[in-house]
Amino acid sequence: MRITKDHRERLIYYLNEFYQHYPSEKHTIFHFIKYFKLRLKNNKDSWMSVSADTGQGKSLFAIMSMILFGRPMDLEKNITYLPTGTEIIDKFNKLNFNCLLVDESAKDLRSVDWQKRANKDVSTKAMTDRFKNNWIFLNIPNFNDLAKTLKHTNILFRAVILFRETNYVRVVIQRKSRNWRDEDPWGDKLANDRYKKCLKKYREIDNDIITSIERGLPNYVMDFIVPNLELILPDVTDEYERLKLASRDSKEDMQDLSKPNIYKEKYDKIMNIVSKLLVNNELGLGKVKVTKQEIASKLGISTQTLNKYEKAPPTDYYEKRKV
Fold it and tell me: CATH second-level architecture of 5-176+219-258?
């Protein structure tokens, strides 16, 4: 589905009306977009993680930002659904001064999956292809699940959806420390200490306290509120959900095809047992031992195949039978 000029104009109009009801807000999503457009024009990196609890609106926030970015956009060309490292690179290479949403990055960019060659290539792409001036959103519920290489080297910014209110969610933008020696470049240890102190003092942490703590951290850039994209562009969000579901079904089918054939395994197991029983005359079918050629002929296989099954490692069933 291609994002049209009408989609963009509807979104901008709705947001302008929305922010009029919150005049005390210092920043809006428009400031956010402008900030990163300037970075891209200066050939600076713009790989960003987007973190929030499941269902808080990570993907819809990223899609809203991509629409406001103003470049040609398509829900299939600019989004990777349940991606692999190879898919990310393929779509990245086709874009110039544009946006790419890596939806559900936890699928393949976690630290536990980082030994895959394709995933390491993603990191290399982030370090070497700055000239393409693309803005990449990596969606992941828990930022700490990302590989250390991405967190400490490639990702310079992160967006965190702090909480959801009735009419909006609050998003905070943070920048990694410029001190390359910093053991805590994202200020997480400092933030944890402040949250613990507030919890001891107030017994409960409300949204105002959360906002105050995040604004006081050294890596704070800005925070703002955004409404639910579903209320503004339901046709876009419905198509996004459809494509995401279709992608999940497609990948599950591919995984099923790659699984071992259970019927072939059962056949091999049975032939293994039968071959040994017949060759060793364990069924007591007669005093004269039957030749392998005759056994193979009755089973409808060659002598070589019979030998393969007979010499295969004993199955659990056969071992129990011998005992």
Answer: 3-Layer(aba) Sandwich (3.40)
Distances (CA, A) of 296 to 246, 275, 283, 306: 48, 9, 16, 6
Distance CA 59, CA 229 (A): 10
DSSP per-residue string spanning 97-130: S-EEEETTGGGT-BGGGTTSHHHHHHHHHHHH-G
Spatial separation of the C-alpha atoms in residues 102 and 140, rounded to whole Å: 9
| 3-state secondary structure (DSSP) of residue 32 | helix
* Domain residue limits, the chain: 5-176+219-258, 262-322
What confidence tens digit (pLDDT) does each residue in 127-157 have? 656 668 889 999 988 888 877 777 887 889 9
pTM: 0.74
**8 Å CB contact between 227 and 25:** no
